[in-house]
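One record is kept unedited as follows:
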Amino acid sequence: MKIKSLVPILLLFVLTSVAFCADQKKINEFVDVKVSLKQKEVKPGSTCDLLIRFKPKQGIHINFEPPISVKFDSTLYLNKVEKLIIPRKPKQEYFDHKQDLIQKFSITKDTPPGDIVLKGTLIYFYCSGSDGWCSRYKHPFEVSVKVKK
């Protein structure tokens, strides 16, 4: 009889724990990522370089396939988003994390002067060479740029 009365309490505890964990932002414990802009100030109509730097832990590598991608949340101030530049040598299996990825894009000519915030998501796959597992990660980013006349 006591076990039956404990079931609802245990169920409530489990559901509360799952909801709490789902609300927490996941941090990738295997790969640190730095996303920045090369240009801190730009004029309307100019091109910007979003620089992406991976720093995986020992034994972890970043995959080329499935492809690494950048998705911007809004293109309100973006005119043209070019193809992501991923440095790669022939027959290179994994991304060389000592190099930056570059996402070029243009600011629209009618962007008003002032600070704008660009938000997006970097999506990549990484694997453990020794343990044989792989995982996909969606890394949200936010960068600011000052638009001047």
Observations:
- The first helix runs from residue 2 to 23.
